[in-house]
């Protein structure tokens, strides 16, 4: 089950155990139960502090991670392999007594919960966003006996996932009711708990430089500003940005291959090495520049700074057609790596013929029964090598000159309609899922009624040093009119904007 390299890495982590841990497993005679038993036997053989017992209650197969005389509330229904292997290791260490690394404000909120909360998270092992949610809810269970959490692997429990209409991961249920969809941080999950008293926002003194956005551009800007020895803040609803949804990155110079969440985790650690005030879980809603630049927050509070760097990034562009919003997470998806396994053996559509769309189609063709690729233009826009790989696949149909007009269904996606642009003829194809991959749009809607100039695409117009038309306001990354949207370019523009802002502060005196 575990290869030698994984075993050696696991041995190193298990030296950090604080006390004994018992795996209580509910097993049957099926293949998945046999795999789980082998997995637990191999793991427990690596440390005298780990033990494995079979019990007779709960889903089959599943196992809980407990102390010898105390239930932790953490359960893995399905093998925690792939991206969830890290979730398993952290759960074992934390149940053994090792304290989770979270903010003091988060700890206080978790400890304040008095009502029983049972979370269930449906995941896929290829989803790079799922571990953040699984690990956050496991931490809550470890720290508060009123909370329990079960990770449910969709491949092992396919029938249950289908019966509960799970068409996107991670999907979280709280006490049997749908609670959350998609990537979320611990703080964002805590904010969703209705009965939990929200922590008061901590006012800040004015900054020298305030960065709005926690992606590659924002992180780079914060580091460059802090290195100048000036008072620096970074405001982000969620640190990491769009990169967290990128499975494989192979074009960061000096880093031949990495994954988005891993890369941005390392970037966050780099930021935290400097004196940067990280303000997470908050959204900017407005900006006003006078003697100081004022940022209005969704919670009604305000932040002030001598200079501001806008680095709010971009998100997947929507088609804005009937059915897209209605069936989001019910067949409409934007991440083939996360949600693709949920459509195994089914017919799906990919809207978009650029690199992202064709890469998605290639991946989905290995999972799904048939993949339809719809491209608005007369030709595909993807790189030639990707097109060649796509055309070799027998279960892919490419439809050019197709304007997608609606996504249809009852409680989930059942079909997709499009118009042949040459003839005007309407066509409908039966599909269980529609993956929308038509590029990015900047996160600048909150700036539309402000003094900051945007171009026709909603991008912030910047000068060579990152300056906008508003004095003291700079911008960087994918939210700007930079021609190329790449991680490494965003980081460079973040550095440029920080140096531009520092130069502005020096000249301002």
Question: How would you briefly describe this protein structure?
Answer:
With 509 residues, this protein is an alpha/beta fold.
Description:
It is a single chain. This protein is of the alpha/beta class and 509 residues long. It has 3 domains: 4-192, 3-Layer(aba) Sandwich (Glutaredoxin), CATH 3.40.30; 207-315 and 440-508, FAD/NAD(P)-binding domain (3-Layer(bba) Sandwich); 332-436, FAD/NAD(P)-binding domain (3-Layer(bba) Sandwich). Helices cover 28% and strands 27% of the residues. It is built from 13 helices and 25 strands. The strands form 5 sheets. An 8-stranded mixed β-sheet has the order 2-1-3-4-6-5-7-8, with helices on one face. Strands 9, 10, 11, 12, 13, 14 and 25 form a 7-stranded mixed β-sheet that branches. It has a 5-stranded parallel β-sheet with strand order 16-23-17-18-19, with helices on one face. Helix 2 links the parallel strand 1 (21-26) and strand 2 (50-55). Helix 8 (216-226) packs parallel to helix 9 (260-272). It is globular. The model has no long low-confidence stretch (mean pLDDT 95).
């Amino acid at each position: 089950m575990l290869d030698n390299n994984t075993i050696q890495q696991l041995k190193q982590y298990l030296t950090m155990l604080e006390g004994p841990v018992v795996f209580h497993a509910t097993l049957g005679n099926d293949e998945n139960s046999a795999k789980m038993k082998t997995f637990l036997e191999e793991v427990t053989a690596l440390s005298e502090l780990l033990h494995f017992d079979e019990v007779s209650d709960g889903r089959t197969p599943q196992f809980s991670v407990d102390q010898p005389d105390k239930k932790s509330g953490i359960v893995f229904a399905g093998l925690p392999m792939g991206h969830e292997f890290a979730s398993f290791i952290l759960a074992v260490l934390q149940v053994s007594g090792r304290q989770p690394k979270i903010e003091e404000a988060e700890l206080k909120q978790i400890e304040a919960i008095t009502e029983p909360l049972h979370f269930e998270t449906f995941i896929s092992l290829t989803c790079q966003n799922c571990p953040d949610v699984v690990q956050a809810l496991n931490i809550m269970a470890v720290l508060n006996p009123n909370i329990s959490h079960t990770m449910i692997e969709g491949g092992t429990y396919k029938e249950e996932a289908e019966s509960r209409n799970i068409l996107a991961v991670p999907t979280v249920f709280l006490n049997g009711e749908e609670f959350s969809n998609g990537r979320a941080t611990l703080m964002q999950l805590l904010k969703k708990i209705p009965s939990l008293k929200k922590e008061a926002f901590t006012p800040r003194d004015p900054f020298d430089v305030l960065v709005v956005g926690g992606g590659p551009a924002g992180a780079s800007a914060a580091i460059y500003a802090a290195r100048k020895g000036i008072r620096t803040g970074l405001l982000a609803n969620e640190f990491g940005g769009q990169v967290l949804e990128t499975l494989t990155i192979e074009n960061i110079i000096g880093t031949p291959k990495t994954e988005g969440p891993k890369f941005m985790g390392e970037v966050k650690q780099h930021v935290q090495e400097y004196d940067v005030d990280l303000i997470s879980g908050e959204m900017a809603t407005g900006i006003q520049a006078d003697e100081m630049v004022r940022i209005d927050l969704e919670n009604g509070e305000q932040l002030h700074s001598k200079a501001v760097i806008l680095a709010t990034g971009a998100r997947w562009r929507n088609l804005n057609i009937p059915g897209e919003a209605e069936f989001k997470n019910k067949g409409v998806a934007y991440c083939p790596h996360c949600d693709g396994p949920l459509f195994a053996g089914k017919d799906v559509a990919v809207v978009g013929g650029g690199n992202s769309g064709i890469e998605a189609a290639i991946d989905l063709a290995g999972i799904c029964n048939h993949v339809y690729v719809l491209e608005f233009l007369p030709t595909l826009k993807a790189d030639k090598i990707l097109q060649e790989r796509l055309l070799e696949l027998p279960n892919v149909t490419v439809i050019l000159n197709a304007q997608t007009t609606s996504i249809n269904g009852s409680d989930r996606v059942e079909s997709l309609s499009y118009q042949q642009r040459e003839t005007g003829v309407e066509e409908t194809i039966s599909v269980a899922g529609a993956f929308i991959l038509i590029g990015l749009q900047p996160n600048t809607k909150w700036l539309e009624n402000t003094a900051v100039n945007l171009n026709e695409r909603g991008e912030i117009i910047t000068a060579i040093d990152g300056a906008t038309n508003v004095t003291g306001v700079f911008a960087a990354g994918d939210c700007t009119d930079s021609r190329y949207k790449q991680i490494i370019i965003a980081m460079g523009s973040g550095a440029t904007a920080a140096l531009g802002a520092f130069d502005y502060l020096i000249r301002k005196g």
